[in-house]
């Protein structure tokens, strides 16, 4: 099978993300944040293995960099200069707009992601797959229920990008019910 991405592009993005997210932890844990980015990119790589008609470099680099604008001092222009416009646009689409009310952010995010190539949709699917683990201990039931409902919204909106990731997300959404009391 022909591989549709390069190790060099993965390493370049991973190095950038590791430096930018240095010292950050996965919320509610002591696990370095870079592990989340690794999990998201692993989901994308698994999907690309099955659905190899996609632009793997775009998908993987955006997977690794998807939180860099939102959670670090890294700018859109910096990503555009280092990785190109397509990757910068993908990362920006995956970045929450904190200037709008929190209850509108997911709808806004999904609207912007839908304007991007399917590889960016794949990243959002993979991100929620990765995030549907045990919720942080400080989340209340309302937040846990809302997070699962957002997972369903993500699935419904972006499932056409990747049958593989859509199937994985459905399974994670179902399994997340154990956290709802």
Give the SSE string: HHHHHHHHHH
Low-pLDDT windows of residues: none
Rg over C-alpha atoms, rounded to the nearest angstrom? 16 Å
Oligomer: single chain
Overall mean pLDDT score? 95
Distance, first to last CA: 45 Å
The CATH H-level homologous superfamily? Hypothetical protein af1432
Instruction: State the domain count.
Output: 1
- Shape estimate: globular
Q: What is the annotated CATH architecture?
A: Orthogonal Bundle
| Helix/strand structural class | mainly alpha
The CATH class turns out to be Mainly Alpha
Task: Tell me about the largest β-sheet.
Answer: none
How many beta-strand elements? 0
Total number of helical segments? Answer: 10
CATH domain topology: Hypothetical protein af1432
Structural features, described:
Helix content is 66%, strand content 0%. It contains 10 helices and no strands. The chain has helices spanning 7-20, 34-50, 56-65, 68-71, 76-83, 85-93, 102-114, 118-131, 141-158, 163-175. The model has no long low-confidence stretch (mean pLDDT 95).
List the helices and strands and how they pair.
Blueprint: H1 7-20, H2 34-50, H3 56-65, H4 68-71, H5 76-83, H6 85-93, H7 102-114, H8 118-131, H9 141-158, H10 163-175
Which terms summarize this structure?
globular; Hypothetical protein af1432; 10 helices; 0% strand; 181 residues; mainly alpha
């Amino acid at each position: 099978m022909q591989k549709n991405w390069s190790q060099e592009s993965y390493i370049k993005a991973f190095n950038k993300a590791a430096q930018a997210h240095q010292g950050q932890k996965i919320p509610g844990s002591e696990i370095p944040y870079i592990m989340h980015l690794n999990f998201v990119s692993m989901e994308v790589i698994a999907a690309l293995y099955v659905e190899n008609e996609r632009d793997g470099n775009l998908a993987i680099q955006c997977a690794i960099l998807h939180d860099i604008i939102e959670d670090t001092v890294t700018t859109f222009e910096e990503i555009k200069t280092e990785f190109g416009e397509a990757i910068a646009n993908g990362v920006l689409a995956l970045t929450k707009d904190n200037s709008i009310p929190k209850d509108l952010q997911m709808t806004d995010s999904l609207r912007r992601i839908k304007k991007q190539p399917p590889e960016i949709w794949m990243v959002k699917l993979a991100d929620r797959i990765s995030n549907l683990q045990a919720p942080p201990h400080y989340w209340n039931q309302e937040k846990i229920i809302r997070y699962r409902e957002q997972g369903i919204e993500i699935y419904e909106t972006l499932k056409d990008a990747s049958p593989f990731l859509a199937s994985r997300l459905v399974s994670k959404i179902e399994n997340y019910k154990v956290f709802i009391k």
